[in-house]
Amino acid sequence: MCLVNHPTINTTHSWRQAVSIVFKHLWISVAFFVLVLVTAVLLVIFAPRKYASQAEYLVRLGHESVSLDPIATVGETMGLHMTADSVVRSTTEVIASQSVAEKVVDRLGIDTILDRDPNQPLSLLAKAKQMFQNLDPISDREKAMVTIESGLRVHSPNQSNVINVTYFSSSPEQAHLVMQALSEVFLEEHNRINRTAGAFEFFLEQNDILLERLTAASETLMNAKKRLGVSSIAGKRGILESRMGETQAAMSENERLLATSSGRLKSLTEQLAVTPESVVTGATSGIDQQSTAVLRQQLYDLQIREKELLSKFTADHPNLQAVQRQLKEVSDIFTKMNLHDTQTSRGMNPLHQDLALQWNSESANFAAYVAASEVLSQQNEQLGKSLESLADQENEIFDLETQRDVAKAKFEAHALKLEQARLEHELGTKAITSIGVIEEPRLLQRPVSPNKPITLVLGFLIACFGAAVLPFAIEYLKDEGEMSQHVVTQVSESSSTLDSPSTMDSPSTSNRSSAAEVASLRSRIARHSGHGLIREREPGQFESAER
């Protein structure tokens, strides 16, 4: 009989057969359905409740994320850019960090976190759980931290600055208590880690040091100015240059006046040399005395006029030449008079006296101009030396002013950083942060686990599916077992036939057919070898049949 056409191997169930299979194993389906529903109901009734306390925070791009720490700006800096997503991720990591969990344990206590009473004996379930945990013993503090980490859920939606934090526990009071402590610790930790500890004290100390340096540099500069007698190098240089300019202008003017006085004095000297000291003051003759007096007066006037013009103009001046001609004519007329019978009287020449007075006055002026020239020269030389000395003083004052300015610039820069550090310190002291609390932790009495509707619906669906599939699975496994047993029997019989001596000595067509059937069976057995019911023969066991 060919096993390929065995009814158990190639079975196509009709609807009638399917219904018969269901009714055949109906009690198993009903039992499975009832068992699953009862399990779901018991799970809803007796499963441990879990309660949740939730809080929501808004992460804003505040002072902590967009400003640079004063310590970070000491020295060279480079541009940094923090996005809102990176700030939210960093804040999420802070909430879920072990540091926050550790501080919550320190704040609430280990017994509160583990929800145990030291005076109350442990139940059997708690003792069994404790024995299981003692396989890898850890401290109670670490257990409390693990409890917080396992019950904490931190979630932030994409493209959102809102962080949702939920803590699950076996009692609503404990969930609310832990969530409240965790919220407080998180805000404190966020405030702490976003500010550099000791920055204000550091800049305050540096500010005192730089202030001392600035004061010392200012005092050194002031003492140097007092020692050199200057308050401002630029001001003193301006004064000296102004005085030197005035002195040089005065020297030029004095040289001009000195040259003029020298020429005037020379002219007066020449006039005195040609002017007689005495003149005839009176005479008695036959000539009209009045005419003689008039003629003599004209002569005197012309002589005085000539002297005045000589002091002002050169010898070739037309006015001077005209006066000289008139003087010559009057003098000739006066000389030609016959005064033999005249009795004369002589006296001081007024013209000579006037010229002498002018010469004396001009001599005094000339001496004054010479003395002024010497004084101005000395003053100009002294001002030049003062400017040269001021150049050396300027280098010293410039170095001291540079040191003072550098110390002042450093002090002002650190003063700004000190103010920033002071503001950071005040913000940290008053716990001012950019984290906004949208929802404070609340005490919720409604458990979040198990979810009764979902549990019952899921149990009902599993019960229905299992009750419908279980009869067919049982029937399939039963058919597979029977088929495997039948195949093993057929293989054993075929192997015995092929191994007999008569078959090996006289091969025939039937033997070749049997060998083909055995090969087909072996391939089918190989497909079902996963059940572990049949082991393949060693290679070469069917070589005689093939021959």
From TrEMBL:
Transmembrane segments: 26-47, 454-474
GO terms for MF: protein tyrosine kinase activity
Ranges of biased composition (kind: Basic and acidic residues): 533-547
InterPro entries with a match to the protein in the record: Bact_polysacc_biosynth/exp
Spans annotated as Disordered: 488-547
Residue ranges with Low complexity bias: 492-510
Protein name, per record: Chain length determinant protein
Keyword annotations from UniProtKB, A to Z: Coiled coil, Membrane, Transmembrane, Transmembrane helix
Entry coiled-coil feature ranges: 376-410
CC per GO annotation: plasma membrane
Natural source organism: Novipirellula galeiformis
